[in-house]
Design brief:
With 159 residues, the protein is of the alpha+beta class. It is built from 3 helices and 10 strands.
Length: 159
């Protein structure tokens, strides 16, 4: 009888837990770091952030194996694309925010040789609610002929 009750309650718990789903979990996916084909130029970073059960703000992204990392946004001003540094990014509850070419992205200076050799960079995304999400970004070497990474190529060195 005890075994049957245990199975019943385990099944009941599984039903309740499965109804929670993954829809309202703050998470960071699809993290990619594209190295610049030009030595000394910064890499660019992209990711998809899924909002959790409450509105939060991404306040910082860090890594121990880079010299500097900043959040940027590409803007269109009178037909001219320009970049500006941004201090934070709102992440609405239950919504998706993409860091992608031509929009919000990371500028990353001095990616360490170990991360380049391993093809991954450990990064920490820090949010206003004090959540800290550690991810492994895929490090990609972009060839000089590849022009898909305009963010890294068009960096103003005065930033």
């Amino acid at each position: 009888m005890t075994k049957q009750l245990s199975i019943f309650f385990a099944s009941l718990a599984a039903v309740f837990l499965s109804s929670c789903g993954q829809g309202d979990v703050l998470r960071v996916d699809d993290v990619v770091v594209n190295l610049s084909p030009v030595d000394g130029n910064p890499a660019s970073g992209y990711a998809t952030i899924y909002g959790g059960p409450e509105d939060v703000t991404l306040v910082s992204v860090t890594s121990d194996d880079v010299m500097r990392m900043e959040m940027h946004e590409t803007l269109d001003q009178d037909g001219m694309a320009s970049m500006q540094s941004i201090k934070s990014v709102p992440i609405p509850a239950g919504e998706k925010v993409k860091f992608e070419p031509g929009g919000k992205h990371l500028m990353i200076w001095g990616v360490g040789g170990g991360s380049v050799a391993q093809g991954s960079l450990k990064m920490l995304f820090i949010f206003s609610n004090d959540d800290r999400i550690e991810v492994q970004g895929i490090v990609k070497k972009i060839g000089a002929a590849d022009s898909s990474d305009k963010d890294a190529e068009n960096t103003d060195s005065a930033e």
